[in-house]
Specification:
four-stranded antiparallel beta sheet
Length: about 450
């Protein structure tokens, strides 16, 4: 009867572990990064010949050989790659949309105010002695200067936001890499097939997903599951190997563009991921700020030149209307009295105002601004299409991974019922062994 006791006891222990694994699966069915677990069961070796059995039949019960995680490494790596691409497109789209909002093309934007200035000049040309129209023209000059300053300030704010986001994301990336090192240390000390090891492997994969969203990585695993990490791209710089951890920092240039460095100072380019999206966004904003400054310089030079070519009410040469000490953010209208507007030329009282319309051609500020707005709109549209494709790709990769690693509650319910019945059967074996032993003892 000791055989029955042993068989029943191993069954109780094994099926209790199996029920615990099913319970963990059900409890974590909505936990991100959790991989389904199952218990590996094997037949326990017999303890030796027993008088009641033939020598060829030596039942020994059931043992737990370890915990299995339901993962397909190829699908995990594919989802990680898709996460890098999605991280890059998502960050880029967000900052390009912020840039589009900064380039205000509404009633208070540069384009509308420049158009308003030329319209006011046309009205003044029709009645050059009207002081109210002269004041309106001067006000429109100030409005244009204000809109250039405001747009430049908003673009600078976007550039600063990108720089700050790069600092935050590189710090978060370094934190994740250091956390992965600690998980590696835990894996080295964990027992193979244990629940603790399975939990550490889940945490490792979540950290790797988080890291890959920032920068694409290549991963190698040792026999214990500890990860060696390197940048997946040109150079293949090592980020984590054993106790050696490499930190990443962002470097912001004077024009707002962003590059990255690995400690102790070697530069590298992020091939994809959020860091690449930030770098691309910073370069785009820097180009837009440069274009805005070029338009501001052109407008100031054109308007001042045209105004200085005319004559005011007193027959004096026109003066500069705008100053631009240092880019669009510094454009300021010079205060002059309405009579100082140089509406006349040498032949008529409105000739200079009529000549201003010559600044509205294909090479003028209006056309340049419209081109800048159109290119920005195209950039956002392209980024939105890329983000949609990358998100769909990521969703498909995650779905394929979750088909293997995810929790199917119907399946867990079936396993729960199966292992409950097995547990009850093992308990019944113990009960029978106990009753038989008690019967034998009572007969002595």
């Amino acid at each position: 009867m000791s055989d029955l006791l042993g068989i029943g006891a191993t069954g109780i222990r094994a099926y209790s572990r199996a029920l615990s694994a099913v319970s963990d699966n059900i409890a974590n069915s909505q936990t991100p990064g959790y991989a389904r677990r199952s218990v590996r069961l094997e037949e326990a070796p017999g303890g030796g010949d027993v008088a009641l059995y033939r020598n060829a039949i030596l039942p020994g019960g059931v043992l737990v050989d370890g915990i299995n995680r339901s993962v397909d490494q190829w699908l995990v790596d594919d989802a990680r790659t898709a996460g890098s691409d999605a991280g890059q497109s998502d960050v880029r789209l967000g900052w390009l949309q912020a840039t589009e909002r900064a380039i205000d093309d509404g009633p208070s934007g540069v384009g509308q105010n420049v158009t308003k200035l030329f319209n006011n000049a046309d009205q003044l040309a029709s009645d050059p002695n009207n002081e109210a129209l002269r004041s309106s023209f001067l006000q429109s000059v100030d409005d244009v200067a204000s809109s250039f300053r405001r747009t430049a300030s908003q673009l600078a704010s976007v550039a600063n936001g990108i720089s700050a986001d790069a600092v935050i994301k590189t710090e978060a990336l370094n934190t994740s890499i250091n956390a992965l090192k600690r998980v590696n240390d835990g894996l080295q000390a964990s027992r193979d097939g244990s629940t603790n090891q399975a939990g550490l492997l889940d945490e490792r994969d979540q950290l790797l997903d988080r890291i890959a969203a920032s920068i694409p990585v290549g991963v190698e695993y040792n026999a214990k599951g500890a990860a060696t990490l390197q940048v997946d791209g040109p150079g293949s710089e090592i980020l984590l190997s054993g106790n050696n951890v490499t930190s990443i920092s962002s470097v912001v240039a004077g024009d707002g563009t962003i590059s990255y460095q690995l400690s102790p100072g070697s530069a590298f380019a992020a091939p994809s991921g959020e860091l690449a999206g930030l770098s691309q966004s910073a370069s785009h904003v820097a180009a837009q700020r440069s274009e805005l400054d070029s338009l501001a310089n052109q407008f100031v030079a054109d308007l001042n030149g045209a105004h200085q070519a005319g004559q005011d009410v007193g027959g004096n040469a026109g003066v500069a209307l705008l100053v631009l000490p240092a880019g669009a953010t510094s454009m300021v209208a010079i205060a002059i009295v309405p009579s100082g507007v140089a509406a006349a030329d040498a032949s008529s009282s409105n000739g200079n105002m009529l000549a201003l319309s010559g600044l509205r051609g294909a090479n003028g500020t209006e056309a340049g601004w419209a081109n800048m707005v159109a290119l920005q709109s195209q950039a956002v549209s392209s980024a939105r299409a890329q983000d949609s494709a990358a998100t769909s790709r990521q969703d498909g990769a995650n779905a394929a991974r979750d088909d293997v690693s995810g929790i199917d509650l119907d399946r867990e319910a079936a396993d729960l019922l199966r292992f409950q019945q097995a547990y009850q059967g093992a308990a019944r074996v113990l009960q029978v062994a106990r009753e038989n032993m008690q019967t034998i003892l009572n007969s002595l």
